[in-house]
Amino acid sequence: MTRHDDPFVRYLRSKEAIDDRALHRPTLAELGDRLGRRADSKPGEPLRVVSVGAGTGAMCRRLLSWGVFDGHDEIKYVMVDRRKGMADEAAAAFAKWARAAGWAASPTKDGFRIERHGRQVSLTYMTSDLFDAMSALPRAIDLAIGHAVFDLLPLRRAVSTILSRVVDGGYLYAPITFDGRTAFRPAHDADDDVVAAYHETMRDGESAGPETGSDLLSVLPELGARVIGAGGSDWVVHPEHDDHERVFLDHILGFFEQSLGKSDAVDDETLREWLATRHRQVETDELSYVAHNLDILAQLG
Ligand SMILES: C[S@@+](CC[C@H](N)C(=O)[O-])C[C@H]1O[C@@H](n2cnc3c(N)ncnc32)[C@H](O)[C@@H]1O
């Protein structure tokens, strides 16, 4: 059953247009060029893609729409996410998108297939922790994608586990990887404390921490993958906000509330007042928000 009122799904949907404009185009162009050359050198071979922390599969739809996979007539795309219900949400999002984009969709035993102009994409969803999913997959990934997820993972372990399933010469693409800077405007007296405390909560447990984008630049080569493209993909949201941006900003503030509510780093009264001010500024169309992210493309071997 799909739950279109799932707040997290609403957040992911609101994020799509913000990611669209943030993605670092030279890195994406590098990926497209290399996949095109791969298709030319291996005619008839399918492109095998695995996306970890795939959410509702927005990146797959985007890469298809933007022609990044155009060199390949057959694509096998596996989405992995541990969150329950996400497979149904992805199926609903793909069905809607496929209809609008003129792809014919048909169900398969573990997902569905879309076809258009002789090109086929098989889509499979695994509701699983990525570490379990990777141990169940053969070493046969041409392109692994981790979109807006590496900061949530134990970085070295996640990268090394993913790379262990990537073929020699295959790629890892890590777009929208948070990299340590958050800003809100107009400035508020509590900004420095709130933002610093928020970044600290990203070190909780095994999470990669607030500078995951930069850390990837060293972790990837240490684990045998050469960085072949990288650049900033900052989220910049400013007035006047459209409906998606309002939903997005409310969710970002929700993440602050959730994370800092559990920490003692900012006193309750300061946090309450800061959040109330920021929510009011969303309503009155005054709030600007910047988050620094990196897109990174690496090649194994
Ligand atoms: C910020 S969301 C990004 C979703 C999607 N890539 C996008 O940007 O639209 C991160 C996703 O990673 C998933 N996730 C986090 N840790 C995971 C893990 N260890 N294994 C599988 N999925 C994970 C979460 O459930 C969530 O859906």
TrEMBL record:
Gene3D superfamilies: Vaccinia Virus protein VP39
One GO molecular-function entry: methyltransferase activity
Protein name listed in UniProt: SAM-dependent methyltransferase
Lineage of the organism: Archaea, Methanobacteriati, Methanobacteriota, Stenosarchaea group, Halobacteria
Biological processes annotated in GO: methylation
Record key words, sorted: Methyltransferase, Transferase
Domain of life: Archaea
